[in-house]
Amino acid sequence: MSKTHVVYKKKIIESIEELPESNLKEVLDFINFLKSKRKKREDSILKVAGCLSGNSISAKEIEEELYGKFKEEC
């Protein structure tokens, strides 16, 4: 854990302790929002990475897949 991380964590805890109890649920909701936003981004990256894994294909194979016989006729 970096020094900056520890400092931020300490400041966050101090700030939370100063909040009235009525605001604690809002803070928790915001933390959960940030966590879910991060998870969605990670899931998106993994989804793309999954598409890229497997057998590699050549440029010619890509062209054939995209244009098929159309390119051959031109």
UniProtKB/TrEMBL annotation:
Residues 11-58 form the DUF2281 domain. It comes from the Bacteria. Pfam families: DUF2281. InterPro entries: DUF2281 (IPR018739). This is DUF2281 domain-containing protein. The lineage of its organism: Bacteria, Pseudomonadati, Planctomycetota, Candidatus Brocadiia, Candidatus Brocadiales.
